[in-house]
Amino acid sequence: MIRKILIANRGEIAVRIIRACRELSIATVAVYSTADIDALHTQLADEAVCIGPAASRDSYLNMENIISATIISGADAIHPGFGFLSENTKFVEMCEECKITFIGPSAKLIHAMGNKSEARTTMMNAGVPVVPGTKDPVFEAKRALKIAKDIGFPVMIKASSGGGGKGMRISADPSDFIENFNMAQLESVNAFGDNTMYIEKYIENPRHIEFQILADKFGNVVHLGERDCSIQRRHQKVLEESPSCAIDDDLRRRMGETAVRAAKAVGYENAGTIEFLLDANKDFYFMEMNTRIQVEHPVTEMVTDTDLIKEQIRIASGLPLELKQEDIHVSGHAIECRINAENPEKNFRPCPGLIEDVHIPGGNGIRVDTAIYPGYEIPPYYDSMIAKLIVRGKTRSEAIDKMRSALGEFIIQGVDTNLDFQYDIINNKKFREGKVSTSFIETMYDEE
Ligand code: MV4
Asked: What pTM was estimated for this model as a whole?
């Protein structure tokens, strides 16, 4: 059994993990940078170890220091949260070598899914639908152009190591292909040191639908329904909901079964997410697999009445899944708004600084995951997300009304936030009608 967990993260997710550990009577060790000495996670954990200076690469990405902190504090496991070292193969290998339980999948699995081109091939071979495109990776623009002509334009050029839109380009027709391929490849070489590319048919205005799965060490895999994450800005999710209003029970069953098949095909273990693109004809295609707990996991927790962090810990402890697929029911509707310290009027520029005062909304079906408090100073070194406001209602319409009420009640004084921007999304006619796609934010103010 796991008795003590070191949380290799900060902010609301570190707090979320500490709370789950406390419920399970597992001791907690926080790690913090010198900029986070007053952070909530540092104060809330049973113990806290300073792991370096403010810059992430010196602290929250400092593998040696985090492993040392684990050994010194006598923790037997590390929960990585999301971001930072959560999908770092080398770090997971270090944990494996030091006999520290990494709460997540193996280094081998993270590596296999991090290679998007290889993941695509693996899924094709497992009978999981992928976007029409290359079977093998391509390295050379001229050869890629030949393939693109076979696929049919427009096409999407993607870097195998890509993510967050990096190393990705649309090509409308053969005349702009070579240039776009070379730009995408150069971006990938610069960002990831990898020139491996693949080509897909371009899917216009898709929805981003992802399925939450849980897999134990005994080959049991279940899915917990989907999240619709179509509302994004520059590949950053802004608002997520579950269930998706684009999916009926039959499609949910088929996509869910596909997600489970995908996880089984790679021998997955722990919590994971299968990302799909859903096109206007309701055809769905595997895009990527995320091998970590995700920011938006609470919407799934709210509609399935589960605790995904506790499930991760149980799985890592070697316990079999207690959940059976037939026992998992999606009930009601949940929405999450990501609250960022940023100024939407100044191109969403981050706005760190002193939180002079906070009022956090509450009430029936309202959940706020945050690490801010009155008098807290948001450091400028990390992500600008400072809270997640999650609501659950019986229906989508009730969840929207709850979110409108809760956003209106939320007060954060001292820094600029996107609270008003989220309010605009919630009150948008198209959003309320469920007519959203990945281009929603670019057009939301058009005809109002
Ligand atoms: C696509 C696509 C259209 N067609 N692939 C964006 C990030 C990366 N994970 C994959 N992405 C996309 N891949 C094909 N073949 C459109 C996107 C895309 C997108 C996907 C989900 C959510 C928001 C998006 C915004 C722009 C582009």
From this structure: 0.97
